[in-house]
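Page 47, continued from p. 46.
Same chain as before, 207 aa.
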Amino acid sequence: MKLDSPLFDRIRVKPGDDRTRRAHTACCEWAGCTQAGTHRAPKGRHQEGQYWRFCLDHVREYNQSYNYFAGMTDDAVYAYQKDALTGHRPTWKMGAKAGAPGSAHGAAAAGFRAAGYGDPFGFGAEFGENVDVARPEAEGRVIRTAERRALEVMGLEMSAGADEIKARFKTLVKLHHPDANGGDRSAEDRLRNVIQAYNSLKQAGFC
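Result:
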């Protein structure tokens, strides 16, 4: 359609006023300012989530002098920054409160002991819990995850003694030695795992 067409002139609508929706903008809250408050500025400590509405010039001026820690001592600022690392939530070292008298964990442990439940794998001892239960391992030793995996690699039971571990190690070394397997790389990998498992048990005092 041509712009100078009389047909176009008849269907064209020219509004008398601007009918576009104007966004409502609050006035700047700076004393004596009548500009639009187009920028937010935090009100400060103990007023988190609350903001002032300032114009561009006044929000710049406000930000230059803003100090969240105003009125706090150096020790208080340091303590706040330290607590901020954990989201201002209390924390404890692993096992520090386990089994403590009056604690929830201690009460739970006491309840389990009273009910006759045991800890055959020594999980409680790993986390600082002193649970007097009968364990299947020999000589009252505590078998942790690393030692348990090492015994599994060597094909031994959890109650295996030092002599049994040493004898099994010698047998596996002869079985998986490259000279006995024609240089098979898979045998070398198995031999490496056996040696690592034996060293782990040796460092833990199992043999």
